[in-house]
Amino acid sequence: MKPIITVVGSIHMDFYIHLPKLPKEDETVVGYEFKMYPGGKGANQAVAAARLGAKVFFIGRVGSDFLGPMLLENLRSNNVDVSYLTVDQSTHTGVAFILLNSRGENMIAVAPGTDSRVSPDDVDKALPAVKSSQALLLQLEIPMETVVYAARRAWEARSMVVLNPAPARPLPDEAYRYIYAMTPNRVELAMLTQSNFTQNMGLIEVARMARVLVDRGVRCVIVTLGKGGALAVTQDDALHIPAFEVSPVVDTTGAGDVFTAALTVALAEGKSLADACVFANAAAAIKITRFGAQATPTRMEVEELIASRRADVKKLK
Fold first, then answer.
1. What is residue 277's three-state secondary structure?
2. Which of 21, 86, 122, 123 qualifies as a FRET site for 245, CA 20 to 30 Å off?
3. What pTM does this model have?
4. Distance of alpha carbon 38 from alpha carbon 51, whole angstroms
5. Which residues contact 21 (CB under 8 A, 6 or more apart)?
6. How far is CA 235 from each of CA 207, 270, 310, rounded to the nearest angstrom?
7. What distance in Å separates the CA atoms of residue 266 and residue 18, rounded to the nearest whole number?
8. Which residues contact 186 (CB under 8 A, 6 or more apart)?
9. Three-state DSSP class for 161?
């Protein structure tokens, strides 16, 4: 039976410019290609969860401009239920401008528009979906008040709350006790724990930082490590789940969204934390070989990748 997941979050259009290199401050770099893709962390995660086998409801807002209908149709075509998505007349649909170099590295600027108006009232209107869901998936591209309210209502309904804390910003103390799983990268983890971040930070140090969030009430913190895979930390364990090596890497945009969505689907299905991380690593690995934040693999592709390679999960001492 398909798990039911409700996503509360952002939806916008991504405008890509492909460049030979990323610009420095005050530098203009001439690109060689322009493309437009649906995006927004919330919508990315909703599409990914649906493609990976979940029944998905989406709570968010688009504008009445030309972009809104395009984004709505994209969600519908990916089997995401948009019954609770609001068309907001007051401002523009959210947009992101993504500069992408030949190695798949990026720089991103966002004008949130209607994303900044997603409200607790939107959550209340969608409470039937929230209460029917095994999991609620959140990010931080909408107002913090709405994030915390949605998390509390899902927690009250005994729905598992998963938060991707991006873009990084401080969380109210109240929020931590509502969260079952959190998926920061190392930079976001350092910000949340007010720690210093260095590129050569070891797994033991990362685990120690993650345990700060566990001590605040989060049940498990899964730190995404890019090429290093993921580190899953609970009160009792710290597990390192190596990444799947793939090539060529063409676009890392949205890889964290695919990872978080896949993790949520797997946990909602009852998989163990280790198996859920392997599933999420595989989904993210396939995504980075494709252009577009919503270039999510199918369930079959993920399962085939997992079956083709041994996932060597290691417990930290």
1. helix
2. 21
3. 0.92
4. 15
5. 29, 101, 102
6. 11, 19, 27
7. 34
8. 197, 201, 206, 223, 225
9. strand
| Mean of pLDDT values over 215-236 | 95
Q: Extract the tokens encoding 26.
A: 């005050």
The pLDDT value given to residue 105: 81
314: β partners:
240
Buried b (16+ CB within 10 A) or exposed e, 259-275: bbbbbbbbbbbeeebbb
Pull the structure tokens for residue 168: 């990084």
Q: What are phi and psi of 224, to 5 degrees?
A: -85, 135
- Measure the CA–CA gap between 141 and 307, rounded to whole angstroms: 35
Question: Of the listed 122, 236, 257, 312, which one is catalytic?
Answer: 257
Judged against a pLDDT cut of 80, whether residue 95 lies above it is answered with yes
Q: Tens digits of per-residue pLDDT, 3-36?
A: 999 999 999 998 989 999 999 999 999 999 998 9
Note if 257 is an active site residue. Answer: yes
* Nearest-10 Cα torsion for 291, 293, 298, 302: 90
Residue range 67-92: mean pLDDT, rounded: 96
Helical residues (DSSP H) of 52-197, grouped into ranges: 67-77, 120-125, 127-132, 144-156, 173-176, 186-193
Measured distance CA(275)–CA(270) in Å, rounded: 10
Paired tokens of 71: 């984004």
pLDDT digits (tens, 9 = 90+) for 167-219: 999 999 999 999 999 999 999 999 999 988 777 778 999 999 999 999 999 99
Band (pLDDT 50/70/90 cuts) for residue 103 is: confident
Decide if 268 contacts 5 (C-beta within 8 A).
yes
Pairing outcome for strands 230-233 and 220-224: antiparallel
Residues 6+ apart with CB under 8 A from 310: none
